[in-house]
Amino acid sequence: VGRLSIAWLALALVVTGCGSPELWTRWRAERLLWHAKRYESRARNAAPHSGDAATERALHALAQVSERYPARRWVPKAAAGDTLARDIARVSGEARLLSGGLEVRREHYAVAVGLFDRVARDYGPVWPTAFEARLAMADAIELSGDTLGAIPAWEAAARLGRVMDPDSAIVSERSFAAAGRVLAFHRDTRHNASADSLVAVMTEATDRELSVHARDSLAAPLWIHRAVLHATRGTPTGDSIARSSLFRALSHRFGAPYWRAAMLALGEDDLGAGSLDSAVVWARRAAAISSPVELADAIDLETRAWERAGALDSAAAALDRLAGTRHLPLGVGTLARYREALLLDQAGNWELARSAYHSVIASDPISPSAFDSMERLVRHHAGNEPEMAEHEAEQGFDLIRRTLDTVRDPEVRARARLTQARILAMTGDDQGALEAYVSLWTDAPRLPEGETAGFEGAELAAHLKDRDRAVSLYDALALGAATEISRERARKAAQGLTSPTR
Amino acid sequence: VSFLEQLLLGWESARSAWRLALKPGIALPWLVLGLVRVGTVVVLAFAAHPLISPVAAPVVSWVSGPGALHYPVLFRLLPRLLDRVQLPIDVVLAGWVTGLTALQVVAVSHRVTRPFSESMSVSLRRLPVLIVAQLPVLALGWLLGDGLTMLLEARGSGPLVTRVLGLLGGIVLGVVTLLFCWLPVIVVAGGRGVTEAWSDLRRLSGRGLGVALLVGLLVALPLAPFAVALHGPGRWIDMGHPEWVAVLLALERIVTMVTGLIATITLALAWGALEEEDAWAG
Fold first, then answer.
1. Average pLDDT over residues A20-43
2. pTM
3. Is the pLDDT of residue A17 over 60?
4. Which DSSP helix (H) or strand (E) runs through A128?
5. Chain A within 8 Å of B239 (Cβ-Cβ)?
6. Using the beta-carbon criterion (under 8 Å), do A20 and B71 form an inter-chain contact?
């Protein structure tokens, strides 16, 4: 029995000794990253005064992960096809990406960009780490204000991106989104050769996947992405390839979830080509299979097609249909009613427009559309029907008073006060309006509404021949406006008022 | 036997059970069973470790999918994983140990000397009969556990329906388990066949209900805190302590070992008393 036990023990040790050390290493790496991510999450949610200490702690924890599991050790193994090594490399790369994210959060953009760049280079063969590093790099460069500088990073991400995510086996929307940004930039700057080269690369990758997934549910989204890529070329050949790809998506047996997207894309294509009736037909077909949450896109396409055709009443009727739909997402119905009112107003159908404006105000009285509707109602009557203007103004003032009594959101309050000042100006109370403008500018100089009030107040003061007040307002704007463009505009206006020629 | 008398019998048996539970011949098999069950928790919680992974990793992957070997996903899946992995251990090893204990307790209560090795072999011989006799409750356990979950998931039922039906299923399973709790004693100590055991169960469902309820309480009360703590293991992960799921499961196994031992001795003593009374009456 003793010998048999020893033999069993030896066999057990031999068998168990064969365990994969990489599995345990991955476990420990994931454990370390998981705890570091908790610090990172705390740093992201920390109050500004405690943010730096929390960020430092998180950066330290994340650095431990990437130091203990360095890219130079795990990336070559991952590149050789070792899936456990790939997972460990991903963990290590994610730690460095999160560090970069924290640097972005504290606006150390140069540090973050350098970090992301190193990750992209060190983890090149590891999907999706290198791709995500390029995306994060492009985002960080954009956030630093260098939109042009971000384009090479977007392009690198697009060329690195895969059409299909190998982990989830679904279409990688982010790769196509990155490509879309780069293509839009190249088309705008007339770098057609660069754009065509990227389209060719992406199309080749998409076609490769299509040959594998021709008969499954992934084919339809791939055909749609292929169409979008070719539509950006802006050539008859590109349009033709795009349309045929969309028809392939529509005819695919598993394509039902993507029919709406394909129909809208075909409609947009027809609208661009001036085939307005076809655009309306595609929009209506898309609307027929849309849920209330998705309906706005289809109605928007139909509205634009009718507008292009000059049929404003039909465009307004489409928007009326949208506004009357139940279970729409928040704000969609109000916006649709507002657009309908604008179209009716433009078409000269004032009575219907007036009713639509009132409907906007009643449905969401603190929305920007409602404030604009109040102003339009007064402005319409201000010239030749002063009593009607006075009546609409009173209704507007009541609502503004209620808003200022009940709403604490500074932007809504500023918008309400701007509307109040404008209505006062429209109804002839120039001094009251001027005081309202000046008071809003003084109280909220950093808000866009405050700045607008400053300029409109200065213009009103100049109109009232109160030159000193106008100049003092422009001077204040030249010093305190939020953007350089606004400050320059104020300086020029002040100079115009103070120049000797006046 | 009135219900009050049944309760008193159960109470007296439970009191004597604590004394008998300290006897090495009775406690040792339960200690082994407890070690095996706690060991299973440790093995599954450390499934990625190279010393265990050749055996544990394929089991974890097969039962819960390859994603279960990631940290901290494993701890989220651990309670259900354990339920599935431990089912064969519970059926075979726990069946053997409860039968063994029942034999020894009946022998002690009848002041008969029965060698430990003989009890072991008798219990092992009776094990297949015990397993077959327990099949209805095992099948019901699967139906109301995994079966019900799969059905509700397939139907896309909401969380409220899932909870209510899960609770109802738990109550039904609890009642049926109480009715079947006499089986190891009847089959192993009483030497009954499957159909005889089931007919004895019917008889005991009236005469031994009070004892069964008391035993049910004795088992359920210490385990209730664990059931609450382990309902939704994701909570521990969100709190930053994934490993606590494994610790709680191990503690739960230790408590189950003690309550199982006491419950088995109580049932064996009560069954012996009821049989004796039948013999006197006969």
1. 94
2. 0.72
3. no
4. none
5. no
6. no
